[in-house]
Amino acid sequence: MYSEWASLSTQITANSCGAQCFSVLNKFPASAGREVVISVVKQLGTNLGITQNAEPSHLVKDEEVRWCMDVICFGLSLPLQEHETIKDCVNVYCEWLTALHPQPRISVPKPICEDANLYARQIINHFHNLFVPRQGESSDTIKRQAVLCHRVLRTLQQTAQISQHMDRETWDTLLLFLLAINEILLAPPTVKDDVGDQLCERVLSVLFEVWLLACVRCFPSPSLWKTLQESCAMWRHRIALVDQWNRVNLALTARLLEFSYGPDFTQLKNAGEEDGQLIPAGMTNDCVAQTWYRFLRMIGNPTALCSPHIISKSSHFVQWALTHEKGAETHQHPCLQMLPQIFLNAIRGISSQVDAFLALPSIGTELRPPLSVARPKCNSILHLFGEWLFEAAHIGGDTWLQNRKKQACEASKRPSSMIMENRKGSISLSQPNSLNDPASLPPTLTIDKYESGRAEAIGTLCKIFCAKKTGEEILPVYLARFYMALQQCLKITESKECDETLASILLHSADLFRLDLDGINVLLPGFIAALEIVLPDKDLKLKTQAITFNRTELRRSAINILLSIMVLPLHYHTLPIRNLTSDTGEKGLTFLQLKSRLMNILMNALQVETDAQNTHMLLGGLLLCVQDAVTFEDTELGGTDHLSGPGVHHHEENLLSSACSDRSASLASGTVSFGAQTTAMSSRDTGSAHDYPSLTISDDISVEFTHEFESVAAYDNAHALFVRATYLVCHRLISSWKTDLNVSLAALELLSGLARLHIRETDALECKRAVKWICDYICYQCSRPPPAHSKDLHSTIVAAFQCTAAWLMQHPYLLQDKDCLQTVLEVVELGISGTKSQSKNGDLPKFKDEKELKPASMRVRDAAENLLTIILEQVGYFPSECGPESISSLLDELALMKHCNSLPTGDGSAGVCNAEQAISKFKYFVTENSTILALLEEPLGNDQDPQPTVTLLIRGPFGRHAWTMQLRHLPRSKSGVKYHAVNPGRPIPMNDITQRPECEQKNFPEGVDKVQPCVADYSIPTIDQIREQYGANVISELEAMLENQSIHEKLAWAESDNSIDSLSHAQECVPPTVCHEFHAARLFLSHFGFLSFEIRDPHNPVESLGPPQRPLIVLDTKSTTFASDLDKLDKLSARTHDTVYCFYVKAGQTTAQQIIGNMAEDQSYDSHFANMLQTLGWPVHVAEHSGWTGFAHNSWSLKGTSALADRHQSNVSSESNYNGAQHVLYWADVSSEIAFVVPNAWNLRYNSEMDACSLSSNCSDQSTVSNVWIRGDDAGSLKSKPRNLSLELDANNRNKEPVPPTRRKGTVSKPALLVQAPAKIFLVWLESFEDYLNFPVEDLLAYARTGEELQSMQLPRAADCHVIFLHSLQSGLLRVKLQGPPGRMSFATPLVDGMVLSRRVVGNLVRQTALNISRRRRLDNDNYQPPHVRRRLKVQDIVQKYKMDLSEAELLAHLFQRSI
Question: Does pTM surpass 0.70?
């Protein structure tokens, strides 16, 4: 940079020799000169005002001043024993230098004031004598010299700062003086505690600070800059040089970034306040840039510090070597042992500047903030620092060794002959590394001691390349050099230790494989080998020297790398991976061959990982691998059927191999043999120790892909991964993870995800074992001592019950197994009651009425009840005929009445036209205080068989169900068979009239008169006694009545004998007319035991207390609000519901209007985004959809019955496919529903209309305005006045428990705790990854309304939103970025921040993640009520409002009343 400019080194050399500091007193004996100095300086010192008042100087002529200055010059060179004299000399000169100040001191001579610059230059040159080291001085005297030097340096620096009169010549003199004293103090080899060692930091800091000041006042000439550069090269063995260089560079860089990238760019924070004031205030931007670049290049290439021969080429080191008593080379000086640390500090300084350009925080911060969008391009940073960093990264590598050997062969002369050359030619800042034999180096300077600096350099390079923006191009030459450096640094030593270089690469390369770097996959084998060293090792041993690494952070970064390459083998298949250094003819690895190694790393890492966050990430990656393998085999391979040759069965038995390396703990393994015309023989022996299955591929399969896939399929196919993952996760869940909330939840989420996988050859035994493990986990958690029972513990139990339900729903055959069924039901019993009936197999079972109800918590009991209902109602039957959008019947009273036979018209239009009329036809009862029975006694139109029929609508905690029951004497299979022919014929009637024998009726036996009467017989009065008592008239009337009755009976018999119906006449037997009138409801209630009233034991005090428990409660349906309350109950879904809002962000878009505009009809977007949407759920038509639609007002409506939806449909044009106006994406399972909405401009207009409608409704009813308890699901039902604290309005809290034990109740005085807005989940597709930093979450919330927000009086905040960003890479893969509120349970699996996905699994994993995020949010909410609890409480509220207090007799009488 300064090659055309002359150096001022000769002047510095002259100063160092004292040419300009020579006094005439040197010509006299030292004692004479000493006497002169003492007498003169003492007199001058008395006028300075130090000990007495200052007086004007008596020196009035130039000759007088020059003579005194000659004396003081000699005095400054006196031995240090004359400390007081030297001190006076320093004081005089420091006072005289104030002539350059705006207000000189009074003691300054007049000639100096008149020509201050001239005299100041002489004074500055004379000060050189003070800094010359004195030989043989004691440490105490050296310290005194250092104190005086500090005084001088402080004075010079202060003068430079405040002087307004210094001319260029004075500035040059000052800078040359500072260079000279640095040269004389720092150029010699370091000797501990000498004056150079004590003043090193100070003289360097003053030099650099004054130099910066000169750049503002009088910019140094190129010759001075060149001299500074050459001088610094001679001081590189001083560690203070590099430290001060770093300090100045960082300060200049901070100012440079400030005006280059604006105030929004992340400002660099210096170590202290002093560094922030290092740059003079008046420095212009152009001056900052010029100064920054010159200082950056000041010490030359830092890699020269790795060559002691170059650093020790100065004459001072040669002099030391020549005078060494034992003879030594210059590079053997002990001070050079600091070179490895100096090299590390220099590279660290460069790294700090790179961090500043990338807006990265200082080293040591745990949370890594995102890179600035305004950061410079990678090429720009590499132009500045790349050459140094690339060279430093190769230090000690193969390339470096080859170049060194080559240079040694080309050397024609010994380096020692080069030492004595001219100073100018002896320093070459770009000179290659040492040509000397390394054997002559001391052990502390061998090349491996520079490993720390090399590690810092390669780590910095990794940070630069990881800062690549979307679409940014990096020069191929930089990529090539970077890949070569990485390949050499990633080489594994024989000891297989993790050294500093390897650790630094892994720590700073987390994003390397997810940035679309050209050709990055050539490094895949090297990175996998590095991961095999770091991740599977439980007690990782780091071979470090000067850099300390946090092992947890190192493993986390390695896991990030692993998650970004997991999908590559199945994405690129058999594509070969080229080797950077080998010939092109050599066959390299293929991607598919790396799959087994990646799987082993993942499994082994999961076995030994102890950090919760790292385990969470690994579990997400594990589910990704299994899901990707399953989907790959289903879609790409067609189930791998085409791989099987004749007689070759790949999957008759599947293998369980925990790992295929010597580091893994073998969980279970097997062997399989493939051969032509042979059957695969396999063994399942969990105790075997086979690490690798033996594979013999059939010769008749010649397809390369088939060959390679077979080679890994034995232990890496989908089923094997499924088995390994299930076994490993269940085992660790029981043994290690059960006490950690987040890890337990992540493990249970993974097991739930595994349960949903459809693997062709699923092993029932493995599934049964998984369910058994989960049940054991629940048992263990419930059995923990009371102090351990906390909210977190119960959250894990609830999640385990949900996981068990997922396994049973996906594998219903498990309940056919007696052992599995018993295990599950025992756990359900444990959850509901708190204990098992049989704690051990041999114990007698304890019946339900004998047990005390003590569940672990009400949340646990609710989860167990839910699982029990799923087992009894849904396993094997979901989805029902209604489809997955509803687990309830799609029939209600109105729909049933339209099909009723009793309607006057066929179409039902004249019979029942609204819900109130339909409800009036039903009888309503409540049983168990949680189930509403609606009974219709009229047969439906599809029933032609006149049987006692009753139609039931059962509304319970788990939904609405419709049943039709008939009282039949025969099963339906035999009901169509006629019991008799149409004309069966009759036998000939017998006309013989049977003679009825006449006999006298006796009331008493014949021998009754013979029995002797007793006193009791006389208690019954005789007829005579009656006559005497009541009179004869009464007896006469009785006798007349008896006579008349006898006559009537005889007439009746006679009439019967003579009628045509008599048996004596021939008459066909005609069956009676069919009865069409039945009291079927009464029959049903009686047959099912609802009318068996409680019989109490009066002797039992427990039963005798309290009101009787009635099995049946009658509801009064005449109330006008009964229909609306039933509708509210029907609007309470029995499943959880969530909504995900999908957005597409084009490159550079930062406003909500731009993003929403992408969904307009005239806009185009990536086709992969549309394909991804189709994998999220099923497209449904909102008007015909009976599940969750993303909007509260039209969800869970019967098909074609939502008038509000119909009203809006007519006004909405088809602006978007899935904005919720006409269509929406929907997915559901047995316990949850989720809608995917793609908002556009319609959503904002629609939400505004709904808000206005809600506000107008609220204004019409003041009680609604102030009510914060309104349930979020009751949108559109606010016309009726809500009751304060009513259960149907309470969305997320439990104020009442239907059955004992009591549920924890919400606090009435704190309504804020009882309302929680639903979680907002955004799915964002990014064209440019950096746009996630400016994604307008706050503005987009207006488009993401469900109708529940205003009802809950709590609008969602941007800080509470969860955002899943997806960025499409050029490779066709997708990069994931997660953003959400901070908290213990914010992020759920399987998606992990930074993960790279295949497009074939993105929909499934995004959906699972959204569901798991919502589940975790509910688990974390103490006051959340499961849907079935909310429905139960709503039923109880209906009971309290409409129950009829009937006695038993009144209840029975009510059953005989017909409906209206």
Answer: yes
